[in-house]
Amino acid sequence: MKDKLKPLIKEAKKTAQKAIHQQLVASLKEVAAKFSTASKKLDKKIDKEAKKLAKKMAKNISINKDELLKDTTAPAKPIAVPVKPKAAKKAETETNPQ
């Protein structure tokens, strides 16, 4: 039982970490765009720091073990995150300069 549970917990924490990271990056980039122009250096810094913070936050997450054992019988559902192409982002910022 413990042998099956440990990899499931690790996978759940990794999934939570990725979700936290994506949300942090999206929010921080949105706020940064309001106050300054976008730059690769700033985007890299945001990504790096969001990754560190997401790792710290995911470490303290408690996973419900009973739910994990129930979910092993059901197939895993991938989380779909919509991604805008770069050309669409440029067109959007050109039409809505803030």
Low-confidence blocks of residues: none
Mean pLDDT: 78
Distance between the termini: 55 Å
SSE topology string: HHHH
Proportion of β residues?
A: under 5%
Q: Profile the largest sheet.
A: none
How many DSSP-defined strands? Answer: 0
Rg, Cα atoms, Å? 18 Å
Shape: elongated
Number of domains: 1
What portion of residues is helical? over 70%
Structural class estimated from helices and strands? mainly alpha
**How many H/I helices?**
4
Question: Can you give me a brief rundown of this structure?
Answer:
The protein has helices at residues 2-35, 40-59, 65-71, 86-95.
Structural topology:
Blueprint: H1 2-35, H2 40-59, H3 65-71, H4 86-95
Helix pairs in contact: 1-2
Characterise the protein shown here.
This protein is mainly alpha-helical and 98 residues long. It has one domain. Helix content is 72%, strand content 0%. The chain contains four helices and no strands. The chain has helices at residues 2-35, 40-59, 65-71, 86-95. It is elongated and about 50 Å long. It starts with a helix and ends with a helix.
Structural features:
about 100 residues; mainly alpha; about 70% helix
